[in-house]
Design brief:
Layout: E1 2-5, H1 23-32, E2 41-45, E3 48-55, H2 58-69, E4 76-83, E5 104-107, H3 114-122, H4 128-134, E6 150-153
Helix pairs in contact: 3-4
Length: 156
């Protein structure tokens, strides 16, 4: 995934009483979302978060990067995690996630809704739940997204 820009510092989930969250605060935040943090090394330099370590799937890798980047005070995530594990350890990918199709990312703009994003990406507003599910546990309600938030958009 590499370097991921989030374009804003002033919005996002507040996990710290200071302008810049600490590595421990970020690790706790990721863990509270139900994402694994064992073996992850999270470092913070100004508004850039660097995350290293091993994860078990591409989806996990993307969710961790997005969870970190959607924190107030973070503008960039340098994702240096590696997807490891044997094929038998990996969950079977649904047809929409087969190799050759990649996840996209969308930065929410004022007036955006998951339905409008689904209409734009998939041509079907009722496919909003696909985007909502791809962003759990970061999203808890499909009606609560905010400008500047970055969302995972799964392939068709």
């Amino acid at each position: 995934m590499g370097l991921f820009d989030f374009f804003r510092r002033e919005f996002g989930e507040k996990v710290s009483d200071t302008d810049t969250p600490t590595p421990d605060e970020l690790k706790t935040h990721v863990s509270q979302l139900g994402l694994p943090t064992n073996g992850l090394d999270i470092q913070v330099a100004d508004d850039t978060v660097t995350v290293r370590g091993n994860v078990t799937s591409q989806e996990e890798k993307e969710k961790i990067a997005v969870a970190l980047g959607n924190v107030k005070g973070v503008s960039r995530v340098d994702d240096q995690t590696n997807v490891v594990g044997s094929a038998q350890d990996q969950p079977t990918m649904p047809p929409s996630s087969q190799p050759g199709q990649q996840t996209q990312f969308h930065t929410v703009e004022k007036g955006d809704t998951l339905s409008a994003i689904a209409k734009q990406v998939y041509g079907d507003a009722s496919a909003y739940n696909r985007i909502f599910e791809a962003n759990k546990p970061m999203l808890k309600d499909p009606n609560k997204i905010y400008p500047g938030q970055v969302l995972r958009i799964p392939p068709r």
